[in-house]
Amino acid sequence: MSVFDGLKFRRVYSPIHNLDPRIKFIYVCAIFVIAIMFGELLPLIILFTFQIPFVLLAGVKREWIRSMRGAAFLATIIFLTNFVFAYLGARGIGQSLENAVAMTLRFIVLIESFSIFFLTTSPDHLGLALEQTHVPYEFTFAFTTAVRFVPVLAEEAQTIMDAQKARGLELERGNFLKRIRNYIPILIPLIVSAIRRSLELAEAMESRAWGATKKRTNLYVLKMHKGDFILIAITIGILAVAIYIRLYLPIPSINQLLANIN
Amino acid sequence: MIEVEDVYFTYPNGIEALKGISLTIKNGEFVAIMGQNGAGKTTLVKHFNGLLKPTKGKVSIDGVETTKVSVATLARKVGFVFQNPDHQLFSETVEDEIAFALKNFGFKETVIKKRVSWALNLLGLTKYRKTSPFMLSGGERKRVALASVLAWDPKILILDEPTIGQDYQQKEKLRQFILQLKAQRKTIIIVTHDVEFVAECNPRVILMREGKIVADGEASKILTTPEVLNQAFIVPPQIAQIFFQLSDLGFPRNIIDIYEAREILLKAIRRKTM
Ligand SMILES: Nc1ncnc2c1ncn2[C@@H]1O[C@H](COP(=O)(O)OP(=O)(O)OP(=O)(O)O)[C@@H](O)[C@H]1O
Ligand SMILES: [Mg+2]
User: Fold this and answer.
1) Complex prediction ipTM
2) DSSP string, chain A
3) Cβ contacts (< 8 Å) between A169 and chain B: which residues?
4) What is the pTM of this model?
């Protein structure tokens, strides 16, 4: 479940948590775009380091490290494939290496920024943001409910596993096919109880007048604060700098820099 | 025999659910574990079949430490029926559901057939043999879960909240049935909030609160000691409440059994009317 942990929101208060989720989302998208714009190692390293103050400010270092560790497996695969193909494409070892590291780092930057977003944005807050950008409430509700039920489902999976182990199920027994089949007694109760729960939820909601009026009111209304404007400024700033560099400046590779020093 | 020696258990999220539990449950004993929500009852019984291993301390079943063997091995000896039957039902028919564990333990086909019929009959489920377990009512699903564990005839039986969602008749059947298992020298451990049920069964009661055992002894003693019950936030059974209120007339305080109560009251009435 370690991959989920990296996306699991924990209620704490920090300047980052208090930011408007819409602005945060725009920021994450900007980082996303910049990461795609550059294939060179140097700017990606800068981009990667640029996120770290956010993590520290939000106080989610532990969770963030865990999500990075969760991404390590995929990152390794990306690194190896890039390296092997670049090398086979008859580039030098140094250059292939740099290229592979850059591609891996690009992936990590994407994961990094999304994980910061999800770690510091409560599902309710996110739902509110969607609603106030005029996304229909049905979608917003479905979205926030889904997000909120992920940890519940993970816990339920654990209980089901316990219940079946108590009836003598051994997950690690048998050959590859048998092992996959071992998971049937876990998946079926999990799916059935998820469906059962969703039907019950629907009934409970309807009996509390869900969808009775077109226009819902909210207890909380999102407002922009100083921090939000600062983040907008930062976003526009780095986007402008990135575009300028991309268009007008040559980016040296690390290999060249090293060669120059010698 | 179940031996628990100074067990502490902390969940990965840091919640310390057991704080120094020690107890021994002998073969053939009938034990009810009680206590408020979150007291650690389920956590404790999950140690008995190795689903959870103590963070500190030791749990042994018949002298074998639970850390040394797999859950599947222990399960052969320790049957565990979970609180919520929906966490285990998955087969197409009730019959297959009951056969599942028997197949896991490697019983022979002929034996499986016999055991399945036996368990179906025992819990009044024979007419649902070919029905999908998902089509049954909540109480019936609970009985299927129970049948699926009883089928392999474990020496120790753990029931987490067995009376929830059962109508009175089924509860009474369950009680008869537990007494029958007790007569066969099986060890039975129930986790329950149902004081009336416990009062009728009169088992050994272990009272828990915030991860610790606060009382351990005869039901008729524990369920009639207000100080102890208050600690665990339990209301005494109705018969005990009546006798509390009659105690200033010289009636005994430690009565939880209907027949005993009847005898005492009859005697008093006769004395008055004669
Ligand atoms: N899987 C889990 N992860 C983390 N904490 C848990 C888990 N299961 C239980 N707990 C916590 O451990 C404590 C004891 O829980 P437990 O389920 O043993 O209580 P219980 O006595 O069975 O309660 P109930 O009467 O509600 O069934 C509670 O504080 C609970 O929040
Ligand atoms: Mg419980």
Assistant:
1) 0.84
2) -HHHHTT-------TTTTS-HHHHHHHHHHHHHHHHH--SHHHHHHHHHHHHHHHHHHT-HHHHHHHHHHHHHHHHHHHHHHHHHHHHTT--HHHHHHHHHHHHHHHHHHHHHHHHHHHHS-HHHHHHHHHHTT--HHHHHHHHHHHHHHHHHHHHHHHHHHHHHTTT--TT-SSHHHHHHHTHHHHHHHHHHHHHHHHHHHHHHHTTTTTSSSS---SS-----HHHHHHHHHHHHHHHHHHHHHHH-----HHHHHHHH-
3) 72, 104
4) 0.76
